[in-house]
Design goal:
CATH class: Alpha Beta
Bound molecules: nicotinamide-adenine-dinucleotide, magnesium ion
CATH superfamily: NAD(P)-binding Rossmann-like Domain
Organism: Microlunatus kandeliicorticis
Distance between the termini: 35 Å
Number of helices: 7
Number of strands: 7
GO molecular function: oxidoreductase activity, acting on CH-OH group of donors
Family: Belongs to the short-chain dehydrogenases/reductases (SDR) family.
Largest sheet: 7 strands, parallel
Order of helices and strands: EHEHEHEHEHEHHE
Pfam families: adh_short_C2
Strand content: 5-15%
Strand order of the largest sheet: 3-2-1-4-5-6-7
Protein name: Ketoreductase domain-containing protein
CATH architecture: 3-Layer(aba) Sandwich
């Protein structure tokens, strides 16, 4: 089996080639993807890098958030899992994996485009984990539209609420409670610098996330709180089959990267772990690109 530790050629380390056309309503489910993504379920090995940490992960049910949540738990963190109610089945699988790692999993379904729900996640973490020192904002909304004329105000609003406002609400609510040593990790995208013509609203939010993070990182550094960003390239997740890409683009998905294939969520979890752990103590305001080699500024 492919893992993250064996010396190997990254070009064919995971699924090569494109993907069959497939479509899911709503946010989609990891369990319905064909082929099944690899979130590190069978492979991620922890080494106590986050022992005793208390984490909140949004979008934790599937994709990149699931991979981060599994890795955080195997590194020794308790985790609050945020996701949409429609994703309960995926989230319960992740909770099982967190508990198998001997850590606490707290299920926190809800729509983070709603201010009270987003802010409430912080209270859930404080009450259920007895504190909070690690936030991975991974949730995101991406809906492709051929023309600007097709982007409704409702879509524009939902994309900004989910990707930018929720991040602001969660971080603002959490900051008074975060001890020195805490880490905030936000999730941008290659779209921040290389926007697709059909992702105008989404790409704009991803640039906002980078800028938000770089400004805030300077503000809170003296308190010993670090703010960093992970910027994925094309990863095989439900987002891409639930309207994030035109369905007919899936056979080509990921092929344009220098590595020549899409990434699997297991391949990006170590970036979150690095930015979460004290190993990266001198790193803040940074964006770590994990994108198969596409050039970034
Ligand atoms: P994903 O569908 O597995 O995860 C996105 C998650 O966002 C969903 O599982 C859902 O729980 C959450 N979410 C969306 N709207 C929400 C809402 N209103 N309330 C609560 N939760 C909500 O897909 P993914 O690709 O793992 O996405 C994770 C992050 O990675 C996103 O921020 C996305 O923009 C970013 N990203 C993904 C790719 C990629 O190719 N997959 C590329 C660049 C950036
Ligand atoms: Mg999901």
């Amino acid at each position: 089996m492919t893992d993250q530790y064996t010396f190997t050629n990254p070009v064919d380390q995971y699924h090569t080639g494109g993907f069959d056309e497939q479509y899911q309503e709503g946010a989609g489910l990891a369990r319905e993807l064909d082929p099944k993504p690899d979130h590190g379920e069978q492979t991620y090995r922890g080494t106590d890098r986050l022992a005793g940490r208390k984490a909140l992960v949004t979008g934790a049910d599937s994709g990149i958030g699931r991979a981060a949540a599994i890795a955080f738990a195997r590194e020794g963190a308790d985790v609050v899992l945020s996701y949409l109610p429609s994703e309960q089945a995926d989230a319960e699988e992740v909770a099982g994996l967190v508990r198998d790692a001997g850590r606490k999993a707290v299920l926190a379904p809800g729509d983070i485009a709603d201010e009270q729900t987003a802010r409430g996640l912080v209270r859930t973490a404080l009450d259920e984990l007895g504190g909070l020192d690690l936030i991975a904002n991974v949730a995101g909304k991406q809906q492709t539209q051929e023309s600007l004329a097709d982007i409704t105000s409702e879509q524009f609003d939902e994309t900004f609420k989910t990707n930018v406002y929720a991040l602001f609400w969660i971080v603002q609510e959490a900051l008074p409670h975060l001890p020195a040593g805490s880490s905030i990790i936000n999730t941008s995208s290659i779209q921040a610098y290389s926007p697709s013509p059909t992702l105008v609203d989404y790409a704009t939010t991803k640039m906002a996330i980078n800028t938000f993070s770089k400004a805030l990182a300077q503000q809170v550094a003296p308190q010993g709180i670090r703010v960093n960003v992970v910027a994925p390239g094309p990863f095989w997740t439900p987002l891409q089959t639930a309207g994030g890409q035109p369905t007919e683009a899936l056979p080509e998905f990921g092929q344009q990267t220098p590595i020549g294939r899409a990434g699997q969520p297991a391949e990006i979890a170590p970036a979150y772990v690095y930015l979460a752990s004290a190993e990266s103590g001198y790193v803040t305001g940074e964006t770590l690109n994990v994108n198969g080699g596409m050039p970034t500024p």
